[in-house]
Amino acid sequence: MSAVEQYARAHIVTDTADTAADEHRAVPIALRYDPEADPRQVHVTLPGPHEWVVARELLEQGLRVPVSSGDIRVWPCGRVQAVMEFHSTEGVAVVQFESKTLVRFLRRTYLAAAPVAR
Known about the structure:
Blueprint: E1 4-14, E2 26-33, E3 41-46, E4 50-55, H1 56-62, E5 67-69, E6 72-77, E7 81-88, E8 91-98, H2 99-113
Antiparallel strand pairs: 1-2, 1-8, 2-3, 3-4, 5-6, 6-7, 7-8
């Protein structure tokens, strides 16, 4: 099993002062999944660097219905977008993705985690 890493462009909206000027500008986001380290988690790295660990199941469910766990919320936004909201002591970051980007990433994670036939 090998790790899956995918880069995406997303729009960040936040209430923190250091990125307020970047609102609504597409920025690079890294999505990473390592089935050997933890097959239930994905890592989302925002510019800054800010890394969040998200349950893969939460990400998948959030493409269909609003869900939350702790400081992270995920929900569909219209027919082609999904939103991830991250809460921290520094503020709130809201990241808007194209749903197909997250679907493609999740498919790759399930392929990476699938047992190899011998």
